[in-house]
Each structure stands twice: as C-alpha cells, then as structure tokens.
Inverse folding.
C-alpha cells in the first residue's frame, strides 16, 4: 500500500514529479524587475528632492529681493513726489502763460511805438504839429490817415529802409489771438492785399 512506503521516498518522488524550475526563473525575473524599479524610483525621488531644494532657494532669494524693494519704496514718499511734480508743472505752465501774455503786450506796445515813430517821421523834425500840418504835403496827410485807419483795424505797416515803400504788414486778430506777418510784394495789387487783410481779420 501507499502508506507502507517510506515517507521520505514519497516526498522525494512527489518533488521530482513537480517542475518548479520555470517558476523559480519567473520569481527571479520578478525580483530583478522589482529591484530595478526600486532603484529607478529612488533616483527619481533624489532628482525631485534636488529640484525642490533649488526651487526653495530661488523662492528665498526672490522673497529677500521683494522685501528689499518693498522697504526701499515708500508709497507716501511716492505720492509726495507726484504731488510736488504736479505743483511744479502747474507753476511752469502759469509762468509760460504769463510770459506769452507779456510778450503779446510788448509786441503791441512795440507796434504802437513804431506807428508813433512813423507819425513823427511824417510830421518832420521842425516846428509844432500845427506848423508841420500847414507845411505838410497832402499826400503825407493821406498816408498818415491810412496808417491810423489800418492801426485801428489791427494792421501795422512797415517801410523798407532802402526805398521807403511799405514792404511788410503785421495783422493782429485780438478775437482769435492770432498775429500774421505778411511780406508785401509789388507784383501783387493793392486790391489783392486788401482782400487778404480782410480775410485775416
């Protein structure tokens, strides 16, 4: 009977009947694979830790820089500087406006003086105005009257120093605040310049 045989012999025969070599090879391959995966995992963990340390150092550096910039920048000082610059800008703008008004006033005064000088030149250097009026040529009276009319309209005429002819006109428009300087050429007629003056006014 089976039970009458030696147990050790039975076990030996049983072991010989099982082919466990392929299983042992499979277990060995699995063990190697697990070891390889474990090593790869450790390498990835080390790389991740190294990257994390680098990022932590970068964060600390940026934080220090941010704190330095924040401490160096004062919002109240910035607002005060902006207010000071705005005030300075308005003062400069007012000064420029005052200078423009003063320049316009001086220009008008210069034109008045030039007209007065022309009147004195027409009157001559001898005698009183009444005597000069008696000796004055009617043509001069007409020219002086025209100059006064032009002046009342805001037009100043200037003579050429060479031939004494009127060569330039300064037209002022007080309503628009414009000043036009017109060089008068003999090739254009008086009618042309009269129309041009009226259009400018």
């Amino acid at each position: 009977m089976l039970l009458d045989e030696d147990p050790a012999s039975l076990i030996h025969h049983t072991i010989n009947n099982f082919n466990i070599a392929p299983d042992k090879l499979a277990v060995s391959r699995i063990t190697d694979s697990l070891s390889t995966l474990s090593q790869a995992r450790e390498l990835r963990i080390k790389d991740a830790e190294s990257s994390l340390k680098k990022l932590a150092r970068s964060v600390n550096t940026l934080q220090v820089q941010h704190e330095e910039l924040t401490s160096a920048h004062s919002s109240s000082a910035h607002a005060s500087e902006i207010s000071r610059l705005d005030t300075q800008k308005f003062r400069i703008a007012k000064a420029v406006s005052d200078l423009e008004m003063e320049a316009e006033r001086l220009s008008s005064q210069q034109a008045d003086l030039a007209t007065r000088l022309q009147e004195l030149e027409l009157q001559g250097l001898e005698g009183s105005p009444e005597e000069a009026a008696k000796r004055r040529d009617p043509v001069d009276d007409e020219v002086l009257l025209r100059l006064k009319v032009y002046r009342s309209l805001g037009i100043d005429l200037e003579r050429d120093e060479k031939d004494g002819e009127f060569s330039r006109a300064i037209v002022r428009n007080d309503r628009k605040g414009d000043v036009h300087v017109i060089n008068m050429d003999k090739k254009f007629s008086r009618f042309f310049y009269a129309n041009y003056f009226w259009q400018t006014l």
Q: What stands out?
A: The first helix runs from residue 7 to 17.
